[in-house]
């Protein structure tokens, strides 16, 4: 491997770690239950002016996102969000899959993927969410 190839591999690894860290904080926020803990986790993971858009919500700001996450917890008590697969990214954009999983029996009635844009501080500044699997109505 040439010296330049080594630098590219090292750089890719560092960038990949940045995406993985941001996504780990994303799931910490989505899985925080207590109101104070939820607010703190959202603040750690998402920029102040974060925008969040999926088929069911379109909000701006950390308070709006806290409300969306709280609504998901109310609708699906006893469930946690889990990452599916690896994080993929380039520049300041990353994408990853997720499932909403029952703690009791492992059922995952909801799944999707999100595309996020990171700010210079590593926090997420925008989320575009897609639902791939939803429960029948």
Structure in a nutshell:
The protein is an alpha+beta fold and 137 residues long. Helix content is 39%, strand content 39%.
Distance between the termini: 55 Å
The shape, in one word, is: globular
- Work out the helicity level: 25-40%
Structural class: alpha+beta
Low-confidence stretches: 5-12
Work out the number of β strands.
6
Which percent band covers the strand fraction? Answer: 35-45%
Strand order of the largest sheet: 2-1-6-5-4-3
Largest sheet: 6 strands, mixed
Radius of gyration: 16 Å
Whole-number average pLDDT?
91
Order of helices and strands: HHEEHEEEE
- Helix tally equals 3
Structure, described:
There is one protein chain. By secondary structure, this protein is of the alpha+beta class. Helix content is 39%, strand content 39%. The chain contains 3 helices and 6 strands, in the order H-H-E-E-H-E-E-E-E. Strands 2-1-6-5-4-3 form a 6-stranded mixed sheet. Helix 1 packs antiparallel against helix 2. The chain is globular and about 40 Å long. About 6% of the residues have low confidence.
């Amino acid at each position: 491997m040439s010296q330049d190839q080594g630098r590219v591999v090292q750089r890719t690894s560092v960038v990949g770690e940045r995406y993985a860290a941001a996504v780990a904080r994303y799931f910490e926020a989505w899985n925080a239950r207590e109101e104070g803990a939820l607010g703190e986790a959202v603040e750690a993971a998402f920029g102040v002016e974060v925008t969040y858009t999926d088929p069911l919500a379109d909000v701006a700001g950390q308070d709006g996102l806290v409300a969306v996450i709280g609504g998901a917890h109310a609708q699906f008590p006893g469930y946690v969000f889990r990452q599916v697969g690896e994080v993929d990214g380039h520049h300041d954009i990353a994408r990853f899959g997720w499932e909403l999983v029952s703690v009791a029996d492992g059922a995952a009635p909801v799944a999707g993927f999100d595309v996020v844009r990171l700010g210079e501080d590593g926090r997420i500044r925008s989320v575009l969410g897609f639902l791939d699997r939803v429960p029948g109505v």
